[in-house]
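Reminder to self: C-alpha cells first, then the designed residues, so the page reads top to bottom the way the pipeline ran.
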C-alpha cells in the first residue's frame, strides 16, 4: 500500500490567499470551481513545500484546471497573484492625457505649438469608433523638448507622433435615462408576449373557485361554520402555469438607441408580471430587476451608473455564463430566456456556446432578439450568433416598436 505524505497545517494568511485565488479564477475567467475545489486546493497545498513556487503551482493546477486550454490562463494568474515579495511589480503608467475631454474634443495643451493654436497645421480628428465595440485610435502630436531655453524659442521643427488605442471595453458611464412616451404600446406588446407563452396546466391539484374535483376536506371544514350544512363547496383543479421570463439586455455601444428601446420593453414586461428577471451586460453583468420594479410608470426611466454593464464593449459569452450560474436555481422548464443583443461580440465563441448549452438544458425556451435581424436580407454571420444558433428556439428581429408588438404572434407561430 502506498503511503501518502502527511498534510501540514497551512498558515491562515496562505489559506485565505489560496481561497481568494480560487474565487479570482471563477469570477474573472469562468473556471468551474467552487467550495469543493477550494478545499481540494488547500489540501493539495498542505502536502507540498509551499515555499517552492513550482510545487505550489503544480499542486493547485492539478485540482483547479478542468481543460487543457485553461493552463495558460492559470499560469499567468498564478504568477501575477503569488508574486514573490520584493519582486518588482508591473509599472503603473500615468494616463497619456490626464486632462483631456472625450475623444474628438478640440482643446489646446501646453505642448501645442503656437502655429497650431492659430489654426495652422491642425491635427487630424480621431478616427470614428469601429462597429462592434472595436478600439478607437487617437493621434497626439507632441513637440520634443529642447536642450536649452534659447533653442526652444526658435524650435519649429519635427513633431513626434504618438498613437494610442482606447480600450475596447471602456464604458461611457453616467446615468441611463429613457423616456416613457410609448409606454402604452410597450405594455400591449408585453401583454401579447405573456399570452403567447403557452405552458399548459399544473400537475398538482390546487384550490380553485371552480374546478373538476370536489375538495372534500375543505368543504367539510367550511360546513362546520354553518352547522354541518355544506352550503359552500370547495373545488380543486389544475391551473395554468404562469411563465417566468429571464431577459438579458446587451447595453454595449454597438446597440445604440436599440438598447434604450429594449430597456423600456423590459420595464413594461416587469409592470405586467412579477415573474420576470432583467439583467444588463456590456463587459460586466448587472441585475436591473430592483431598479425596474421601483420605477414609476408614466415617468422617464432613470437608472444609476451601471458601470461595466452599460456603454462599453461586448462580452456576451462570459456574461451569459455568469448569468447561467447566478440563475441556476430559478431557471426551469417554465422559463423563457430572451437574449436582446445584436450579436457583435469580442469574446470567444466557445465560451458563448458553453453558456447557451447550460441555459438550453434548464430553460423551457431560449429566444434571441436582434436589432440587426430586422434589416433586409439579414444573414446570421456574426460569430456569436453562429455559435448560439444550435441552442436557440428562434432568432427574431427587434428593430423597433412593430417588431416588439409582433413578438408574441411570432412566438405562437413557432409553438
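Designed residues (415 positions):
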Amino acid at each position: 500500500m502506498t503511503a501518502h505524505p502527511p498534510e501540514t497545517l497551512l498558515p491562515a494568511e496562505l489559506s485565505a490567499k489560496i481561497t481568494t485565488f480560487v474565487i479570482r479564477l471563477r469570477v474573472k475567467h469562468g473556471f468551474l470551481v467552487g467550495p469543493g475545489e477550494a478545499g481540494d486546493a488547500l489540501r493539495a497545498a498542505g502536502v507540498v513545500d509551499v515555499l517552492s513556487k513550482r510545487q505550489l503551482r503544480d499542486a493547485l493546477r492539478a485540482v483547479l484546471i478542468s481543460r487543457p486550454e485553461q493552463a495558460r490562463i492559470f499560469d499567468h494568474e498564478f504568477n501575477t497573484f503569488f508574486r514573490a515579495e520584493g519582486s518588482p511589480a508591473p509599472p503603473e503608467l500615468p494616463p497619456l492625457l490626464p486632462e483631456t475631454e472625450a475623444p474628438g474634443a478640440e482643446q489646446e495643451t501646453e505642448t501645442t505649438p503656437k502655429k497650431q493654436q492659430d489654426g495652422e497645421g491642425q491635427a487630424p480628428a480621431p478616427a470614428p469608433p469601429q462597429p462592434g465595440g472595436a478600439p478607437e485610435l487617437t493621434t497626439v502630436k507632441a513637440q520634443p523638448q529642447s536642450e536649452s531655453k534659447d533653442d526652444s524659442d526658435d524650435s519649429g521643427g519635427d513633431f513626434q507622433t504618438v498613437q494610442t488605442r482606447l480600450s475596447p471595453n471602456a464604458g461611457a458611464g453616467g446615468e441611463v435615462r429613457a423616456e416613457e412616451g410609448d409606454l402604452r404600446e410597450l405594455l400591449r406588446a408585453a401583454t401579447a408576449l405573456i399570452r403567447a407563452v403557452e405552458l399548459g396546466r399544473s400537475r398538482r391539484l390546487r384550490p380553485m373557485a371552480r374546478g373538476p374535483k370536489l375538495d372534500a376536506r375543505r368543504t367539510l371544514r367550511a360546513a362546520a361554520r354553518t352547522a354541518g350544512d355544506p352550503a359552500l363547496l370547495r373545488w380543486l383543479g389544475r391551473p395554468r402555469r404562469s411563465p417566468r421570463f429571464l431577459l438579458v439586455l446587451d447595453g454595449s455601444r454597438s446597440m445604440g438607441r436599440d438598447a434604450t428601446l429594449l430597456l423600456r420593453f423590459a420595464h413594461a414586461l416587469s409592470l405586467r408580471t412579477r415573474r420576470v428577471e432583467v439583467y444588463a451586460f456590456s463587459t460586466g453583468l448587472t441585475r436591473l430587476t430592483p431598479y425596474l420594479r421601483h420605477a414609476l410608470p408614466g415617468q422617464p426611466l432613470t437608472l444609476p451608473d451601471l458601470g461595466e454593464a452599460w456603454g462599453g464593449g461586448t462580452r456576451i459569452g462570459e456574461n451569459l455564463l455568469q448569468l447561467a450560474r447566478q440563475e441556476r436555481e430559478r431557471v426551469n422548464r417554465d422559463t423563457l430566456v430572451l437574449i436582446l443583443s445584436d450579436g457583435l461580440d469580442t469574446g470567444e465563441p466557445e465560451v458563448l456556446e458553453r453558456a447557451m448549452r447550460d441555459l438550453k438544458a434548464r430553460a423551457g425556451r431560449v429566444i434571441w432578439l436582434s436589432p440587426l435581424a430586422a434589416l433586409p436580407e439579414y444573414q446570421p454571420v456574426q460569430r456569436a450568433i453562429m455559435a448560439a444558433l444550435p441552442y436557440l428556439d428562434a432568432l427574431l428581429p427587434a428593430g423597433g416598436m412593430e417588431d416588439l408588438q409582433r413578438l408574441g404572434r411570432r412566438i405562437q407561430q413557432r409553438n
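The chain has a mean pLDDT of 75.
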